[in-house]
Each structure stands twice: as structure tokens, then as C-alpha cells.
Amino acid sequence: MEKLIEVKELTFIYNRGTKKAVKALQNVNLEIMRGEFLTILGQNGSGKSTLARHFNGLLTPSKGEVYVDGISVKNQSQLREIRKRVGMVFQNPDNQLVSTVVEEDVAFGSENLGIPPDEIRQRVAWALEALNMTEYRKESPHQLSGGQKQRVAIAGVLATRPDCIVLDEPTALLDPLGRKEVIDAAKKLNREEGITVVLITHFMNEAIESDRIVVMDGGEIKLIGTPGNIFDQVDLIRTLGLDIPMATQIAIGLRQKGIKVADHILAAEELVNSLCQLL
Amino acid sequence: MELTKDITLGVYIPRETTVHLSDPRTKILLSILLITLLFLVKTYIAYGVFTAFALFLIWASQIPVGYAMKGLKPMIPVLIIMWVLQIFLQKPDHAQVIFTMGFLEATDVGLHMGTLMSIRVLLLFLLTTILTMATSMVELTDGIEALLKPFRKIGIPSHELAMTLVIALRFVPTLAEEMEKIVKAQMARGVDFDRGNFIQKTAKMFPIFLPLFLNAFKRAEDLIIAMEARNYTGGAGRTKMRQLKMGPADTKSFLVVLIFSVAIIAVIRMFPPLI
Amino acid sequence: MSIVVENLSHHYKAGTPFEKKVLFDINLEIQDGEFVGLIGPTQSGKTTLAQHFNGLFIPKEGRVLVNGHNLADKATDIVKIRHQVGYVFQNPENQLFKETVGEDIAFAPLNQKCSKEETNRRVRECMSLVGLDYDTFFKRDIFALSGGQKRRAAIAGVLAGYPEVLVLDDPTAGLDPRGREEILEVIGRLHQEKEMTIVFISNTMEDVARMAKRIIVMNEGAIFADGTTRTIFSESERLRQIGLGIPETIDIMQRLAARGLRVPTDTLTVEETIDGITAGLAGKGGDAGWN
Lengths: 279, 275, 291
Description:
- The complex is a heterotrimer of chains A (279), B (275) and C (291).
- Chain A has 279 residues and is α/β, with parallel strands linked by helices.
- Chain A has helices at 48-52, 79-85, 102-112, 117-130, 146-158, 176-193, 227-232, 234-239, 246-256, 268-276; strands spanning 3-14, 22-33, 37-42, 63-68, 71-72, 86-89, 164-168, 196-201, 212-217, 220-225.
- Chain A has two domains: 35-57 and 73-243, P-loop containing nucleotide triphosphate hydrolases (Rossmann fold), CATH 3.40.50.300; 245-279, no CATH class.
- Chain A has ten helices and ten strands.
- The longest helix of chain A has 18 residues, at 176-193.
- Chain B has a two-stranded antiparallel ribbon with strand order 1-2.
- Helix content of chain C is 41%, strand content 21%.
- Chain C has 13 helices and ten strands.
- Chain C has a six-stranded mixed beta sheet with strand order 6-7-8-3-9-10, sandwiched between helices. In chain C, strands 2-1-4-5 form a four-stranded antiparallel beta sheet, covered by helices on one side.
- The longest helix of chain C is centred in the middle third of the chain and has 17 residues, at 177-193.
- Chain C starts with a strand and ends in an 8-residue tail after the last helix.
- The relative contact order of chain C is 0.13.
- The chains are: A alpha/beta (279), B mainly alpha (275), C alpha/beta (291).
- Chains in contact: A-B, A-C, B-C.
């Protein structure tokens, strides 16, 4: 697998040089591979969104480097190229939709790239279909649910055919149904279209099926690994302000009582299977 | 309570009528023509013909009449004030006083002018309502952008203006909802919007407007970042997915308005104002 | 302090082409001191219903009585009702408008014409209730607060009106796990220590399972179910049918029961679940599964 995004010794300071300077990232090193589904977990203030905004050049490093497909994000003249490769979806479903009609909004990014109108139409239709939003294409965003709005936002990014989609806490303001819609959509795009997905979230259960998880706190990466490895470190996860899937908590409690439940339990079905094997 | 229930301006009612199917450029230009003609009208007869045409347009675009008229409700206090001012302030030499109230004199000319002016404003509002009810926001802004495009050469940022309009319109219902929530939240904390005189009531709006502005600014901030991330750099180098095309509906619209224009000008000339 | 709802129906955007019936013949009673969870899929009418409890909507069809007072009665002091039934909106931090925390929390008591001393007393108390240290935060700029702190300040602002009933609309929305835990603790305290009647609207089943004793389920504008927390969540199939999830603990137990293990299927907490599974395994004879 090749590297798509490379983060080297990244340090970022908000309001640099003023009295209100705050160091949000400290010496972060990370490589994001093409085609992977990476989740960056962390509580509020951990620096995860700050890190994510370097991936498309919205923020530039105070110290260190970030490369997207070999291009440095410090290179102002190349921002267009970088943003062609890395698209981003944000937390507030409303505050990223610009048009009064769904399909118009999905076309927005492609229009900005000067793509010919006929091709835009094709891409929009394709993107809406990929996100199961075709039947809403003529609706006003205002009438959609949060999950639907986010799917429109993702479709808009998808239509520009990026290599990577970064989702910055896309589910924070959604209800459980909306959250599921968005995460399922992200997984589908990763699996079926081969798009690299970087998911920023504080919900543990969204990370369960990622290829890798990065856990951040206080501007630093504290843990990197597969979901199985990460979730076993229950106490550390708790001190980092994150919660453990219930199934994992139950598994750990049962193990403490001497019941030989399997390791790396993340979801209900795994727990149930493991317990049934003990019968 | 629902704040936005009776706001009819800007609410699009989707149908497939000739009015709906006409190109927005056609509709905007014809609207400008009709509004210009409206200002030439000075007699009750001519207004009568104009009103009949307006009702015809409402029928042709299948807009529920009652609903369109409802939007006029908030205008009524303004109209009454204007009407009263005209009655008492119009004092040309040939005017005759019809009654007095203290030192205020109501003239027949004033009554006449006041009534005509009110009708004019009502018709203006009605025409605008018809336009916005039969034309979606997207179409309108596309139409405005297209009509302004030739002026880019003299420095008018047609795309950016249209974009600003689109975004503003896109957020109207969102911010209206936000405002409703804020009003309710402050009501829940004991603000009684029904009581108090005008000044007291205005002061009560501060707990509404400040949070609303803050909210709107936050949204704007977020939106700027999102647009940047989507490679928006203004109008240069952009293409548009929606292309405007004229069609048979436009021909019909032009013809109808043309016929009406001739008719109204004829009426104006045949029945000159008496005062 | 009870809330009685009789045959309540409600039309949204009445009198326009967009009119829609959103509440259908609601009948319920909330008693003093209850902790009621109000759940339902989106657009089920839960917020519309809850906004009748404090008179934000005045019933036009049916009746709502708060402490015996009919809301539709002209003689009823609606403003007073709004102080007795406090309402914390979703994302309540959006309603903050005064410069400092102290001033904003004082808004409700001042609207109630409380004296300066009384207001100060209430502000202190409510800040303490939500876990905002008085000395640190009283003069703090609203803008200088974190999201979680703003939310707590907003809740304190509603509490300062000294409500007997508190309606909370999705109070943990948008918070990270730590923030969520803090808010739930505050709500728990309000119910325990202040004996407030709580109506808790939420989409997070685990939160509702943990905190509420009684649950009202709404669907498409009508009451779908009304019962104790355990009973309601046990009927998982019914809830699934209307698109609602169930707490994970119950999901796990039901799956185990389906595979033949004899476990209680109404456990609401991790501890109960662990105990239930342990007992179930032991009951299967001998020391199945033990080290």
C-alpha cells in the first residue's frame, strides 16, 4: 500500500505569536495509506479536528510537514490540487450546504473545478445514487433529516472524485439512525469505490470496523493500532475521555469473574458467540 | 406558536404551469415590465384591469388564492399608515377638504391618492409573490446571474452577487427555525412577548437578536471553511450544471404580457385621470 | 405538581396549504416526582408534545392541565406555568445572550421579579447544581466557555427559575463521552436531591434506560407505548418495528436467550448484565465456562 497522506513532526499553534497562543498539536507523526479506513478518536480538545484540517490544507503546520500525495500543504499555489485529492465533510450538516436544491449542492464542488456541465450531471447522478439520495435530488436541504443532509454533503464531495474523504465528526449532531446512515455510507465508499476514508469521531462504536484506529489526547497520538488492540486497553481509553463499547465492558467484567470470554470483544454478536461456545 | 407559518413571500409552490415552465430570465424581465406599467396606472379603471390580470396570473400559476392573500396580512398596518398620511398631507391647490380632525384636514385628493397608492403597493406585493411562488430560488438566482453577466465587463460581480443571494435564501428557513427556537427558549425563561408597550417590546427582542446574530455568524464561518474545502474561489473558472434554455412556455408568456401591456396602455389613454 | 393531557391533538401550520396533523389524541398523566423518558423516531411528535407541557403551545383540541390549571383558560397565568415547568431546549447554549455567565443565569429570576438577594442566591445555587464553580465562572465571559460549560450554564439558567418540573430535550446531543457523563450526573442529582419531576427526551436508549423509571414511546404523533423502563425495552420487536433501537444490554441478553441461555432479558446496566450472564452460565449446570 502506498502513502496518501504523510504527517511529519507536526506541531500546530492557534493564535501563534499572540497572548492567546494555544498549542493544539505536538510533534505528530502519521502515515495514512491509500484505500484504508482510518478512524481518529479523541475527546473534545484532543486535537483530532486540528489534525484533520491539515489534510486538505485548511490549516498549515506551525512546525513540521504534511504531504498529500507528495505535495506539501504549505504550498499555497497547490491548494486546489490538494483539495481535489482530499475532500472534507464537516460536523454541522446545515453549515456546509450552499444551495436550495439538493442536486445543485452536490454539483457545487464539481462546478468549482470547471468540469463541463454534462459531466457534472453524470457525476451528480452517480454520487446521489451511491449515497441512496437520488429520490431527494430536487428537494430543499431544509426538509431533510440530519443524516440525509450529511449524505448530501458526502455526495457533493464524492462527485469531485477525490482520492480521500475526511469526515470531521460527521455524526456528532445526529440521532442514532442518522449516525448509522453516515457511517454505513462511509464504509460503502471505502469498500466499493476504494476511497480512502479518514473518520474523526468521539464515538467508539463507529471505530469498530476500521482498519486502524488512532487515539489522540492533548495534541498527541497516544495509541495507534487495530480496533482489537486498542479496545483491550480499557483503563487507558477511559482516562483519555472515551467510552468502551458495552459488549467490551461486559466481556471484561465477566473475565474478572473468571468466565473465559474471548479476547478483543467489540460487538454484541461477538460476545454472544463467545459465550455460547462456553456452553 | 409558529413564527414562519404565514410568510408567503419566497415560498415556492411547485407546479407545471406555463408560468412555472418559463425561463426565469423571461419572468424577471416581464416582472420588471409589469412593475413599470404599474407605476403608469393612475385611475381606478386601469387598476381594475391590472388587478384582473394579477388574478389571472394567480389562476394561471395554480397558486391558492387564499394563501397568496394571506401574505398581505403583515402589510396592512403599513398600508393603513400610508393611506392616512396621504389623506391628510395631500394638499394641492384644487383640493377640497372633506372633513377635519383638529388641525388636520382631509382632502378628497388625499383620499383618492391614498387609496390608489395602497392598491399599487398591494399589486406590487402580489406580483412579487406570484413571481416567487412560481419560480424556485435556484431559477431566480440563475436568472439574475444570467441577466447580470453582460455587466461583468463593467465590473459587476454577477456570479458573486448571485451566490450571495443563493446562500442567503438557502439559510432563510434555517435561521427562521433557529429564531423560533430562541424565542421559545426565552419565553421558557419568562419573557412575555405579548405584554408591554412598543418600547418594552422592542427591548425584549435583544435576547432574540443577539443569539440569532451569533448563530448566523457562526454558520457563516463554518460555511466559508466548507466552501474553501470545496475549492470555491469565486466566479472565475467555474462552470454551471444548470443551463437556462428558453422554450415554448416563454413565447406564450411574452405574448400574454405583451397583449396585456397594449391593453393597459390603451385603457390608460382612454380613461385619463380625473384629478 | 402534575401534568394531565386529555385528548390532545395538534395541527402544524394550521390554515395554510402545508397544514399537517402532528399529534393525535394524546392522553397521559405525569405525576409529581416521576422520571419519565420520552422516546420515539424522528417526527414522532415528542418535542411538540413536550412543548405543550410548559405552555409554549396552547391546546386548541383537547386539554392540558398543569397543576390543575387549564392552559387554554384565559385566567391561567401562562408565564407562571413556564417558570414552574422548566424547559431545556436542544443545544441550549444557543440561548445565551448576556455578557457573563452570572448575568445570563440571572435572567429567569429577574423576569420573575425576584429581589437582588434572591436572584444572587439562586444563581449561586444553580451554578453549584450544574458543577460550575461560582468564583471561577460567575464573571466569566460567555464566549470564553467550552461547549460543555456553555451547556451547563444554559441549564443553570433554566434552573434559576426554580421549576418543579424539568423537561430536557436531548440534553446530551453533540457532547463527547465525558461531557455526556457530566450532564447525566447533573440530571440525576436534580431528580435525587431536588426531587424534580423530569421529562427526558432522548434518542440515546442507553441514557434513557439508565435514568428513567417510566418510558413513553411515541410514533407518528400518537402514544405507542407507556410503561416502566424494563417493560418497554423488553418489547424489543415492537420497538424495532417503528425504527427504534434498544439498549445494548437488552440486545445482548435477548440474543443469548434466543440461543438457549437462561438469562433475564431486561437488564439495564452493565452490572446487571454481568450478574445475569454469570447466573445463567452457572444455571447451565456445574461450572460451564469457569476457569
